[in-house]
Amino acid sequence: MGLGKTTLLYDYRCIADLHTMLKNHVGWMELGSADEQKPPKEGTVEAWGRSEANPLGGWYGLKKGLRGRFGMYIPPLMEKLGLAEVTHDPKGNKMKATHFPGSL
Questions:
Q1: How far is CA 90 from CA 18, 24, 27, 71, 94, in A?
Q2: Mean pLDDT across the stretch 71-100?
Q3: Per-domain residue ranges for the chain?
């Protein structure tokens, strides 16, 4: 993902892993995007993307110092791919997996 001259890199498995987790999660999940240096709000997509309990066992972000913002950049990509629904409110956005035949 490019932001001006900054490129954020995430492990490719994050899309399938997040989709699987969301399919098992009941209801919507808050995105909770945060920079790497800030602790994420518990129970959010951002917290899951850093958690030792996720399938990767930690950060999906690959570049130290720029590993955060998982909850900001991966959900819209998943929405575009048809794997998730994402709210588009001024604050407190949430996502949930789409459930259709052939999804990851």
A1: 23, 27, 20, 15, 11
A2: 94
A3: 6-97
